[in-house]
From TrEMBL:
Record-linked InterPro entries: DUF454
Protein name in the entry: Inner membrane protein
Gene Ontology cellular-component terms listed: plasma membrane
Source organism, top-level taxon: Bacteria
Localization annotation: Cell inner membrane
Transmembrane segments: 21-43, 91-110, 116-135
Keywords, sorted A to Z: Cell inner membrane, Cell membrane, Membrane, Transmembrane, Transmembrane helix
Organism placement in taxonomy: Bacteria, Pseudomonadati, Pseudomonadota, Gammaproteobacteria, Moraxellales
Keyword Cell membrane: yes
Organism: Psychrobacter arcticus (strain DSM 17307 / VKM B-2377 / 273-4)
Length: 140
């Protein structure tokens, strides 16, 4: 194989826990969060990125193999690496998340009963806080 055809693999920074029980717990939670992230791809009301990042964090503490697989994944790898190295989020992801939160909150205002409108305002406040937090992070 020529030099230009070799694949580049990012070496993960892992911090595996010393207790086997805790490592198994992190491994199981990693798979749970990864499954929720995959479901989030299919369901517009469920986020994908936070669950994938939680899976990466769990696997970094439990399984070098799965953590290595995730950070070198074709679709999720660059996102996870940017977060692990710089706590950075791509600008398009910030805008997409903000727009989706705005649409969801607006739909909530129109579909919730009048006596429960406080829930819509609470969701709107939380979404605003998340959007402010996102845009304060560096761009990937």
């Amino acid at each position: 194989m020529t030099q230009s055809k070799k694949a580049f693999y990012y070496r993960p920074k892992t911090n595996q826990h010393t207790s086997p029980t805790v490592r198994w717990m992190f491994l199981v939670f990693g798979w749970l969060f990864f499954a929720l992230g995959i479901i989030g791809i299919l369901l517009p009301v469920m986020p994908t990125a936070p669950f994938i990042l939680l899976a990466a964090g769990c696997w970094a503490r439990s399984s070098r193999r799965f953590h290595f697989w995730l950070i070198n994944h074709r679709y999720f790898g660059s996102f996870v690496r940017d977060w692990e190295n710089n706590h950075a989020v791509p600008l398009y992801a910030k805008w997409l998340a903000t727009i989706m939160m705005a649409i969801s909150t607006t739909m909530l205002f129109f579909n919730i009963p009048a006596d429960m409108i406080w829930v819509a305002w609470l969701v709107g406040a939380v979404c605003t806080g998340v959007a402010v937090y996102l845009f304060r992070l560096p761009n990937a």
